[in-house]
Amino acid sequence: MTSSHPRGNDEFGMAARIRDPDWSTTPLGPIDRWPSALHVAVNLIVDSPESIYLAWGPELVFLFNDAYRPILGPRLPHALGKTLPELWPDAWEAVRPWAEKALTGEASLHEDMPVTMARYGEDEKTWWSFSYSPVRDQNGAVVGLFCITNETTEHVLRKAALQDANERLHSLVQARTAERDILATIVETTDVMIMVSDLDYNILAINQANADEFERVYGVRPKVGDNMLDLLADQPEHREQVRMGWGRGLAGDEFTFVEDYGEADRVRPYYEVKFRTLRNAKGERIGAYQFVTDVTERLREQAKLAKAEEAVRQSQKMEAVGQLTGGVAHDFNNLLTIIRSSVDLLRRPDLVEDRRKRYIDAVSDTVDRAAKLTSQLLAFARRQTLKPEVFDVGARLRGVADLLDTVTGARIRVVTELPDDACFVRADVSQFETALVNMAVNARDAMEGDGVLTMRLRRGSTMPPIRGHAGAAGPFAAISMTDTGAGIEEGQIARIFEPFFTTKDVGKGTGLGLSQVFGFTKQSGGDVDVESALGRGTTFTLYLPEVEVGPAEPHVVGPALVASPGGAGRRVLVVEDNVEVGRFSTQVLQDLGYETTWAANAEEALDRIGARGADFDVVFSDVVMPGMGGIELAKELRRRLPDLPVVLASGYSHVLAEEGAHGFELLHKPYSAEQLSSTLRRVPKRSRSSSE
């Protein structure tokens, strides 16, 4: 992210006012030395049409945009660069709790909040809708806050007037004073639009505002004594609307709705319409009354506030995406550096054999690390292709506990607390064990290699609300891992599952281990919760849905599954749209002893296979291709030629992530030559007679 001075073309606007002063005497320092996050935040507010201010740093230095200037009143000339408490001492205590929450990383939204302030020298009661959002730097630390604010005093006062009128009418009924003259007096002296009718739609009382609006909408002027339905006799559509709306109020319903009464060729007003039943002292229905209030400005302010909030969220989302892509680029560049250097050295003709083997091993190991990196990213994004199966959680925990000594070291004691009864879940076993190892590594580092690591399993648990998401009744298997380490700061707990976020020293972690834990549990239908206290350790708890276990199906291995050595001349149709990968795959297969044919897409593959597929023993297809994809091709071949085996290959596919491999053999990219050969040998052999 590059720094730039505040944008803006208005030489008298806030962009110029922020750019020109000498900031060296303020806590912010010279503008050329401002951090990039401050430049980004300032540019965001000066470009916004909403009234926004920015409070930066622990001192909360105050900066604002043009839309905010009218709010300052007489304070405008000396507002820029002041601290928030200095500038608004009269309002500071009212908003201080929300500002302090924003500085801890917690956003908040408030509507129609009362604030007593002295904008013009005397205390006045005002109301405001506003939001506070934390501002983070490139490392994720909170360095200030945004406040998007709009004054709603006029709306609140109108609402209070409406409520007052409503209460006066109710008091009228309760006091048995439903005479028309008193009713008319109350209605006519109220600013909001009110009309009252009897059970036959005759108007008992109406004030000027409602009469004007009725005439504007329907083209006729109503008055006391008129029948609403007769007034609209020549407008059957409007007559039916009035009959249905008032009918609900007359029938005893009390309801509120927002209606658009505007024409298409102008700015449309929106009205909040409230119907209430009018009853006499005995509780009998004698009519209904209607309150109508213009809520256009309120809805516009809400929309503007929501739009500005979305702009802030989008800005912060882009900042997070920048951190993610930067982390990916950093780690992949490191891996590519090893591969590139090793390949360059392998080209040297005088390279001795042991060095050649070392560089070849380095390339192979680095590819494995790159594959693990992408796997962890896909796990966090819940886009990995899982292979779920039913297994006993307790048995797996015992097995992992036996292996953790090599992960945690001799000075960490591993304790298991498991129930006597078996507990079954349906999940990817490999990913489950990887999640446990990732949590164990995290715990080891938190304990600095010395302490107690306790793994517990609880059956039949409910899943509590986690990070704002609703809980679930279950039953869930609750797998917890507790360490005796330093604990996690409260402000960091919400971020520990973010990709590449880590509190470890450089070179001691990628920040993807806990991302894998998060992605795996969410994609498996569960979640992961964290409880921590500084100096008292941390507990991670995985919640996975429990399943009932039926009789196990017998696994039969027939003669068709016997592996043959090498390719043995088996005929493979390679389906791959990428030219480089297609050439490489066919060459590798030929070197392994297979006969190969290459098709650039699924449609070409179907043409080559023909009606009986007599020329091929197996199809090896990529999943993601233009037109018909690999899964569609495999399903079509299963329908046409069920005896022709299909092996799929993919680095990532959203269909695989969401639906699985549909029963086909799947090879994950990147794959080695041995993995490819082993997978092809594993598929059933096709008899020559079936293909001839």
Write the layout of secondary structure elements.
Elements: H1 14-19, H2 36-46, E1 52-56, E2 61-64, H3 69-72, H4 84-87, H5 89-103, E3 108-117, E4 124-136, E5 142-151, H6 153-174, H7 180-188, E6 193-198, E7 203-206, H8 208-218, H9 228-231, H10 236-251, E8 255-260, E9 270-279, E10 285-294, H11 296-346, H12 353-380, E11 388-392, H13 393-408, E12 412-417, E13 424-428, H14 429-446, E14 451-463, E15 472-482, H15 490-493, H16 513-523, E16 527-533, E17 537-545, E18 571-575, H17 579-591, E19 595-599, H18 602-609, E20 618-622, H19 630-640, E21 646-650, H20 654-659, E22 665-668, H21 673-682
Helix pairs in contact: 6-7, 11-12, 12-16, 13-14, 14-16
Radius of gyration: 36 Å
What would the average pLDDT be, to the nearest integer?
Answer: 78
Helix content: 40-55%
What is the total tally of β strands?
Answer: 22
Count of separate DSSP helical elements: 21
- Residue stretches low in confidence (pLDDT < 50, at least 5 long) are 1-5, 7-11, 379-383, 505-509, 550-565
Structural class: alpha+beta
The main β sheet shows up as: 5 strands, antiparallel
